[in-house]
């Protein structure tokens, strides 16, 4: 079989040209593959060099103790701004009281506050992972007649409150009267678990 192919190759110029063309294409393809491999290797080397330079720069910084202290201070400040509640029921009552007071001070008309579900009662609300481990999410729905002055005053008061209040949604309806509906959230720090009583 090989002898027949070699004899045909020797006698047929077109066959020799076709075989040469095939080898030429394979040779060009092999060169392109090698070039792509070289480009990929150069890119990986550059990425590794950049990462190494960053790591070296970080390891030369010697103020890790100060950074740790600054991070702890910031954490304490942020945790200090959270609401506090001994139980989820007290947390809800505290948030409801605040909203009633704020609406009264803002002078809104026909106010209504209804407390919604919490993460304890409904965990399927898409909370961020881990947020329910040491926090309670308390939800409240406000409804009141729209008046630009009292509306602005209420939300400025809530924005300036020492404990953050998150506006989850806000709707103003026209019919039958201009009325505001807002869903507000407050995150309460759960109390530290009491230490186990020694037997």
Main attributes of the structure:
199 residues, alpha+beta, Alpha-Beta Plaits, 5 strands, elongated
Shape: elongated
**Unreliable segments of 5+ consecutive residues:** 120-130
Taken in chain order, the helices and strands follow as HHHEHEHEHEE
Structural class: alpha+beta
Number of strands: 5
Number of domains: 2
Oligomeric composition of the shown chains: single chain
Q: How far is it from the N-terminal to the C-terminal residue, by CA?
A: 93 Å
CATH class of the largest domain: Alpha Beta
Q: Strand share of the residues?
A: 15-25%
What is the average of the pLDDT values?
Answer: 82
For the largest beta-sheet, the strand count, sense and barrel status come to: 5 strands, mixed
Do you know the CATH architecture of the largest domain? 2-Layer Sandwich
What does the radius of gyration come to? 35 Å
Helix run count: 6
Share of helix, binned: 55-70%
CATH topology of the largest domain: Alpha-Beta Plaits
Walk me through what this model shows.
With 199 residues, this protein is of the alpha+beta class. The chain folds into two domains: 56 residues; 107 residues, Alpha-Beta Plaits (2-Layer Sandwich), CATH 3.30.70. Helices cover 56% and strands 18% of the residues. Strands 1, 2, 3, 4 and 5 form a five-stranded mixed sheet that branches. A hairpin with a 5-residue loop joins β4 and β5. The radius of gyration is 35 Å and the shape is elongated.
């Amino acid at each position: 079989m090989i002898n027949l192919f070699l004899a045909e190759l020797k006698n047929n110029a077109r066959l020799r040209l076709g075989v040469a063309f095939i080898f030429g294409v394979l040779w060009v393809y092999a060169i392109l593959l090698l070039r792509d491999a070289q480009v990929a290797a150069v890119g990986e080397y550059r990425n590794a060099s950049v990462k190494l330079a960053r790591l070296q720069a970080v390891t030369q910084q010697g103020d890790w103790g100060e950074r740790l202290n600054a991070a702890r201070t910031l954490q304490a400040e942020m945790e200090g701004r959270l609401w506090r509640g001994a139980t989820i029921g007290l947390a809800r009552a505290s948030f409801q009281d605040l909203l009633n007071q704020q609406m009264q001070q803002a002078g809104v008309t026909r106010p209504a506050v209804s407390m919604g579900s919490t993460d304890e009662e409904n965990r399927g609300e898409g909370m961020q992972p881990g947020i329910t481990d040491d926090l309670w999410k308390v939800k409240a729905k406000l409804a009141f007649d729209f008046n630009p002055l009292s509306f602005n005053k209420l939300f400025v008061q809530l924005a300036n409150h020492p404990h953050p209040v998150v506006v989850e949604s806000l709707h103003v309806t026209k019919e039958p009267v201009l009325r505001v509906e807002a869903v507000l959230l407050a995150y309460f720090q759960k109390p530290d678990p009491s230490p186990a009583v020694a037997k």
